[in-house]
C-alpha cells in the first residue's frame, strides 16, 4: 500500500514538475529558407536543415556524432563479395498520409534517385547501385555493380531519404515522410511549422510543435535572440556576438564542428593560377590564424587539406602551407611574376567569405598579388563562379561530409585535373577494408595539399544559440540537419 | 552687381550658418586632402591582434574589426565620399545646365518638351532605388555609384536653370542682345549663364551633401565603393553587428557623415541668404 502511495506521489510530483515545464513548442531560427521542400531534388542545404530526420528518414541515418546508424532499415546483411546489401525494414512504419512504408517505397525512392532523368543533386551517391529488388514488404535487396565502402554512409544522406509514390507529386510544397514530425504549414518568406507525428514508429518526439523561422540578416538575428522571439538559432551568423550570449544566463551557446572545409578556391585552369608555383605562393601568403581571428572571432580549426580535422583519417598538412610571405615572394619570382599579378576575388555573402576576403586580399597584397574584390549574392555566385567558372579566387565553405571526391571531377568549379588522383578516388570507392581506406585517404589528402589545388583555410565551426532550458540539440553538424526528435525543455 | 566684393565678404563673415558650415566642410575636405600626404596608420595593413579597441592615445578614435585605425579610415573615406559626390555634381551640372539653357532658349518648342519630359521621367523614379538598380545591374563600384548619383543630379540642375532662365529671357538686356544680332546660344552663354551662377552654387552645395548621403547609403548596402577602398557607409555596415559592444565603430563614421552633411547644408543655406537676389536686403 505504502509502495503504491509512493508511486502515486512520485507520479504526482512528475505531473507537477511536468506542468511547470509544460512548454512543448519551440521556435528554431536559421538564416536560409529552403527554395522548396524536396530534399531529393535540390542541392540546397536549407531543405535538409528543416526536414532531415524530422520529416524524412532514410534507410540509415546520421547520429549527432556523424556515425551511421539504422534508420528505416533496422538491420542489414552484406554479402561476402560486398555486392549485395539486404536491408530489413522496420515494420508498421507509415507515411504521414497514412500509407504504409514498405520495400516498394524503398525501391521507388532509390530507382527515382538514380534514374537517368533524376533531379537528385547527389546522383553519385547512387551510382554504384545496379538493381533494387523487393524480396517481401519488409525486405529489400540492393545489388551493387562494384563494392562500395561508402554505401551505408551514402544511404544516410538527406538526398537518399525514402519517399512515397503516392505523395511524390506535391512533395515540393507538401512533404510527406515517415519522421517523428509532420509538415503542417509553410508561410513563404517567414516560417515553416511541423507538428508531432502521433503514429511515429520509433521513439516519439518530445515536442508537440516546431516552428522554423528564417532570419537572414545578422543584425536581425541578434535582435531576435536577444528579444527571445526565437528559442534556438542554429548556425548563428555573427560570431562576434557569441560572447554576449555566453555571458547572459538566459542563453546557452553550443559551438561544434561542421563538415565545412572553408577554402580559398583557385581556378586551376586560369593563368597564371594554373602554375603550381603560383598556387603555392598564394598558400604561403595566407596567415590562417589571422583569418580565423579576424573573420570568425577565433572560431575554427586550421586545415591544410580538404578534410575534416575531427575525422579519424585526417592528416595535419598545415605545415605544407605555413605562413611565409618571403617564400611566397620567392616563389612568385621563380614562376615569372617578380612584381606579382592581378586577379579577381569573388565573395559570397557569409561573413567568413566577406571578412575573410578582405583579410586575404590584404595578405596577398603584401606579397604583390593584387585582387579585385567583388561581393556576390548566392545566386550570382552560383551562376558566375560555380557554374560559369568565371573567377580567379573565391572563398567558400564546402559543407558536404566526406567530399574529397570532388577533386576527382575535372569539371568541378576549381577545375583540378589530375589523373593519378582520379584513379586513387576510383580505387578508394571500391575498397571496403578500413586500413586500406585510411591509407588511401591519407594519400589523397597529401596529393591535393602538395598540388596546392586550393588555399586551405579552416574548418568552419557552427554556433547554436539556445534558451537555457533547451536540451538535446546536436552540438556538431555532421550533415546539414536540425534534428529535433530528441529535443525537449528542461528546467 | 551693386554689391561690392568687400561688403559681400563682410556679410559672409556675419552669417553664422555660413561660417559654421564652411568650417565643418573645410575640416572634412582638409582631412581628405591631408590623407593623400599622411595618415596616422596605413589602412591597407590589417592588425588583427589589435582589433576592436576603443579610443586611446595610439588610436584616438579606436580600431575596427580588422585592427585598422578608425581615424585613418575616416580620413581616407572622406576622399571616397567627396570624390563621388563632387563628380556626381559635376555630371549633373555639366549635362543639366546646357539642357536647361537650351530648353529655356527654345521654350515651347519640341526640344523643350523632350528635355523637360525626359527630366520628369528621371525625377519620377525614387533616386536611391534606381541607383541601387544601376549598381546591381552594372556591378557595384565607386564609378557606378558616381554615375547613378550623377544621373539624378541632371534634372535638378536642368529645371533650376530653365526656370531662372525663362524670366531672364524677358529682360531688356537680353532683348538688346537679340537686337544686336546675337544668337540664342551666345545669349545663353554670355547673358543668361552668368546670372544663374549664384543659384548653381547654392544648389550645387545642396546636391553635394545629398551625394555624400547617397554614397554612404549605397556603400552601406554594399553597392558603393568596394573594399579595400574605405567608405563611411561600409564602415557603418561593418560595425552594425558589433554596435552592442563596440559602439565607437559605428559612432565615428556616423558622426563623420552627419557633420559633413550638416556642414554642407548650413553652407548652402548661408550662401543662398547671401547670394539670392530675392533675399538680399538693402544691397541694391
Automatic annotation (TrEMBL), chain A:
One of its GO terms (biological process) is peptide transport. Keywords: Signal. Pfam families: SBP_bac_5. Residues 68-396 form the Solute-binding protein family domain. This is ABC transporter substrate-binding protein. CDD domains: PBP2_NikA_DppA_OppA_like_6. InterPro entries: Peptide/Ni-bd (IPR030678), SBP_5 (IPR039424), SBP_5_dom (IPR000914). The keyword NADP does not apply. One of its GO terms (cellular component) is outer membrane-bounded periplasmic space.
Amino acid at each position: 500500500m505504502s509502495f503504491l502511495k509512493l508511486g502515486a506521489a512520485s507520479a504526482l510530483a512528475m505531473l507537477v514538475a511536468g506542468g511547470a515545464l509544460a512548454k512543448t513548442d519551440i521556435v528554431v531560427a536559421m538564416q536560409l529558407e529552403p527554395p522548396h521542400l524536396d530534399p531529393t531534388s535540390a542541392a540546397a542545404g536549407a531543405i535538409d536543415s528543416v526536414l532531415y530526420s524530422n520529416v524524412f528518414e532514410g534507410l540509415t541515418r546520421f547520429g549527432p556524432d556523424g556515425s551511421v546508424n539504422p534508420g528505416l532499415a533496422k538491420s542489414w546483411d552484406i554479402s561476402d563479395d560486398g555486392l549485395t546489401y539486404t536491408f530489413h525494414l522496420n515494420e508498421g512504419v507509415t507515411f504521414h498520409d497514412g500509407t504504409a512504408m514498405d520495400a516498394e517505397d524503398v525501391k521507388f525512392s532509390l530507382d527515382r534517385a538514380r534514374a537517368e532523368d533524376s533531379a537528385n543533386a547527389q546522383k553519385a551517391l547512387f551510382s554504384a547501385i545496379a538493381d533494387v529488388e523487393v524480396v517481401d514488404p519488409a525486405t529489400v535487396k540492393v545489388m551493387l555493380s562494384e563494392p562500395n565502402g561508402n554505401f551505408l554512409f551514402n544511404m544516410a544522406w538527406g538526398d537518399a531519404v525514402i519517399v512515397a509514390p503516392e505523395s511524390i507529386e506535391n512533395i515540393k510544397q507538401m512533404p510527406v515522410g515517415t519522421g517523428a514530425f509532420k509538415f503542417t504549414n509553410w508561410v513563404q518568406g517567414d516560417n515553416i511549422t511541423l507538428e508531432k507525428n502521433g503514429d511515429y514508429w520509433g521513439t516519439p518526439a518530445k515536442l508537440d510543435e516546431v516552428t522554423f523561422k528564417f532570419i537572414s540578416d545578422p543584425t536581425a538575428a541578434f535582435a531576435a535572440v536577444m528579444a527571445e522571439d526565437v528559442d534556438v538559432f542554429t548556425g548563428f551568423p555573427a560570431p562576434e556576438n557569441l560572447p554576449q550570449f555566453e555571458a547572459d544566463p538566459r542563453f546557452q551557446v553550443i559551438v561544434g564542428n561542421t563538415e565545412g572545409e572553408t577554402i580559398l578556391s583557385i581556378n586551376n585552369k586560369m593563368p597564371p593560377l594554373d602554375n603550381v608555383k603560383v598556387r603555392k605562393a598564394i598558400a604561403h601568403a595566407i596567415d590562417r590564424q589571422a583569418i580565423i581571428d579576424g573573420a570568425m572571432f577565433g572560431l575554427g580549426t586550421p586545415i591544410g587539406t580538404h578534410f575534416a580535422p575531427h575525422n579519424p583519417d585526417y592528416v595535419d598538412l598545415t605545415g605544407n602551407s605555413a605562413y611565409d610571405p618571403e617564400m611566397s615572394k620567392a616563389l612568385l619570382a621563380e614562376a615569372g611574376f617578380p612584381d606579382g599579378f592581378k586577379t579577381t576575388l569573388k565573395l559570397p555573402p557569409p561573413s567568413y567569405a566577406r571578412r575573410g576576403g578582405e583579410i586575404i586580399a590584404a595578405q596577398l597584397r603584401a606579397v604583390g598579388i593584387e585582387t579585385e574584390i567583388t561581393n556576390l549574392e548566392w545566386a550570382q555566385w552560383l551562376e558566375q563562379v560555380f557554374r560559369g567558372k568565371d573567377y580567379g579566387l573565391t572563398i567558400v565553405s564546402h559543407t558536404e561530409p566526406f567530399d574529397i571526391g570532388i577533386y576527382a571531377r575535372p569539371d568541378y568549379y576549381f577545375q583540378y585535373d589530375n589523373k593519378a588522383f582520379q584513379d586513387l578516388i576510383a580505387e578508394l570507392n571500391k575498397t571496403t577494408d578500413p586500413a586500406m581506406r585510411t591509407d588511401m585517404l591519407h594519400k589523397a589528402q597529401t596529393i591535393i595539399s602538395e598540388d596546392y589545388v586550393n588555399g586551405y583555410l579552416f574548418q568552419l565551426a557552427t554556433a547554436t544559440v539556445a534558451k537555457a532550458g533547451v536540451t538535446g540539440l546536436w552540438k556538431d553538424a555532421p550533415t546539414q540537419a536540425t534534428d529535433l526528435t530528441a529535443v525537449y525543455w528542461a528546467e | 552687381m551693386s554689391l561690392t566684393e568687400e561688403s559681400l565678404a563682410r556679410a559672409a563673415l556675419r552669417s553664422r550658418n555660413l561660417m559654421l558650415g564652411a568650417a565643418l566642410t573645410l575640416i572634412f575636405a582638409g582631412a581628405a586632402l591631408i590623407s593623400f600626404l599622411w595618415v596616422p596608420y596605413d589602412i591597407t595593413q590589417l592588425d588583427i591582434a589589435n582589433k576592436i579597441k576603443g579610443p586611446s592615445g595610439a588610436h584616438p578614435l579606436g580600431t575596427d574589426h580588422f585592427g585598422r585605425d578608425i581615424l585613418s579610415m575616416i580620413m581616407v573615406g572622406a576622399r571616397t565620399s567627396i570624390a563621388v559626390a563632387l563628380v556626381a555634381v559635376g555630371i549633373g551640372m555639366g549635362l543639366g545646365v546646357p539642357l536647361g539653357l537650351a530648353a529655356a532658349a527654345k521654350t515651347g518648342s519640341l526640344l523643350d518638351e523632350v528635355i523637360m519630359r525626359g527630366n520628369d521621367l528621371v525625377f519620377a523614379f525614387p533616386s536611391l532605388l534606381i541607383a541601387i538598380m544601376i549598381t546591381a545591374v552594372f556591378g557595384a563600384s565607386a564609378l557606378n555609384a558616381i554615375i547613378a548619383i550623377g544621373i539624378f543630379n541632371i534634372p535638378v540642375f536642368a529645371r533650376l536653370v530653365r526656370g531662372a532662365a525663362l524670366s531672364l529671357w524677358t529682360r531688356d538686356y537680353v532683348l538688346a542682345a537679340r537686337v544686336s544680332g546675337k544668337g540664342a546660344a551666345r545669349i545663353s552663354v554670355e547673358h543668361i549663364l552668368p546670372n544663374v551662377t549664384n543659384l548653381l552654387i547654392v544648389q550645387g552645395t545642396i546636391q553635394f551633401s545629398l551625394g555624400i548621403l547617397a554614397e554612404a547609403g549605397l556603400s552601406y548596402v554594399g553597392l558603393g565603393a568596394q573594399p579595400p577602398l574605405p567608405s563611411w557607409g561600409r564602415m557603418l555596415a561593418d560595425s552594425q553587428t558589433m554596435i552592442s559592444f563596440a559602439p565607437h565603430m559605428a559612432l565615428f563614421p556616423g558622426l563623420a557623415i552627419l557633420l559633413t552633411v550638416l556642414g554642407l547644408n548650413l553652407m548652402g543655406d548661408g550662401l543662398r541668404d547671401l547670394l539670392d537676389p530675392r533675399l538680399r536686403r538693402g544691397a541694391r
